[in-house]
TrEMBL record, chains A, B:
Its EC number is 5.4.99.12. Belongs to the tRNA pseudouridine synthase TruA family. SUPFAM superfamilies: Pseudouridine synthase (SSF55120). GO terms for molecular function: tRNA pseudouridine(38-40) synthase activity. Pfam families: PseudoU_synth_1. Residues 9-108, 149-251 form the Pseudouridine synthase I TruA alpha/beta domain. Formation of pseudouridine at positions 38, 39 and 40 in the anticodon stem and loop of transfer RNAs. It comes from Phytohabitans maris. It catalyses: uridine(38/39/40) in tRNA = pseudouridine(38/39/40) in tRNA. Keywords: Isomerase, tRNA processing. This is tRNA pseudouridine synthase A.
Amino acid sequence: MTRVRLDVSYDGTGFSGWAAQPERRTVAGVLAEALARLFGPDGASGLTVAGRTDAGVHATGQVCHVDLPDEAWARLAPTLVRRLAAVMPPDARVRAVREVPDDFDARFSATFRRYEYRVTDAPYGAEPLRRHDTLAWPRPLDVDTLNAAAKGFLGEHDFAAYCKRKENATTIRAISRLDWRRDPDGTLVATVQADAFCQAMVRSLVGALLAAGDGRRPVDWPAGLLSRRERESGVTVAPAHGLTLVAVGYPEDPEEYARRAELTRRLRG
Amino acid sequence: MTRVRLDVSYDGTGFSGWAAQPERRTVAGVLAEALARLFGPDGASGLTVAGRTDAGVHATGQVCHVDLPDEAWARLAPTLVRRLAAVMPPDARVRAVREVPDDFDARFSATFRRYEYRVTDAPYGAEPLRRHDTLAWPRPLDVDTLNAAAKGFLGEHDFAAYCKRKENATTIRAISRLDWRRDPDGTLVATVQADAFCQAMVRSLVGALLAAGDGRRPVDWPAGLLSRRERESGVTVAPAHGLTLVAVGYPEDPEEYARRAELTRRLRG
């Protein structure tokens, strides 16, 4: 078998998230179906994704890996992107495919995930052509306040207040970037990067920051919750459709794939 | 009555174009319905648009005017954008409203219309979140060839080859800008600006340029058709969903509104 990295984009609107579920339309389900059409029902195995996005969340920079039979891969590789485009629906695309070492693991070798969250405070709401990936916020937002509040999240913290509690799973994460910009068209865009996120964490962080950004909460309220040991009910999880997974990072040196995967497995344990 | 300028955006996907038609969902129909809800069934009159976009064409910079009862306008003006947002569907928005002189005519006072056409030649097709306003082109396109071919359209010409013939209507138009850029994400964007366009003209120009840009036609073929007196059947009209009306220009000096309108009426006659 040859291990292959797939770079994937999708509009999350019509999907019940990434992970395959019976009776639900999911990105993994659609992708597995396309791979089965090209490689046979048992041809592709071990589809593994970097970021299991929730229902309604989009991606322009999702990464996954899959193992393909050597002969079929060698034959289809040069035309695989076009072939996948022809058999997949237009709301999910495989942008690139490439062979990777066997110890590349899309999930565990990743060094960071980067998300963007788009929100507009325009009085007319979201621009129609961007309404599928932009949250309309009913109150004016202050970008300096958003950035001041965001600063308190930087670095390694226990994000228990912002995570769904899971048995035997740490809620400690390291946020390496969290800042807001206002684009020329007025849209506010948050960029959030961490080694990893627990479920709905980005949307919880954004929800808390928006409460500070529109003046309903003090600027130090979002980071102040980091002392809590449990999920904070005062935090509203921001809607899924503003969120897009834009990039996943991996070690530059392929020799590091296995070491990084081992380290991640130990950290998450 | 007070004349009011409305700046309008829409996602053309769900509309049978701008112009009101019985039994069809159109932008003018939706806007007229919203105005009727806020100003009463006979409150708003003379809704007039700068660019009557075809079915499926989008707008981020459409302009129209309407006459509103003085008293109701004075009362609702400060909150009108939010009120319209609340009663209109999310695929059509009024971005701004403002009082204009009575001789402002959204259609006849306009000095230019500017459109953008988005097309991708990526082997995987259109990025899912932009698939509603980006054409997926199956062959590689060369941006230098597109620009070289586009140059021949600049200036005043008889665009009979690129226009639907209409009784007693000139097909002479003046194109002040027509150029292509390749965005960092690989998308090719044409910007086309003219005093005015005849029906489906931008999409016909783009269709001809794409045939040169992918090498199926010589670079001088699109402009060479300008000698024809009739619509050229060899030109494929590019699909509507790649096209967006992004701006409409008016004289800076309001004193010029009437003069410009008179000039336009004479030119189009």
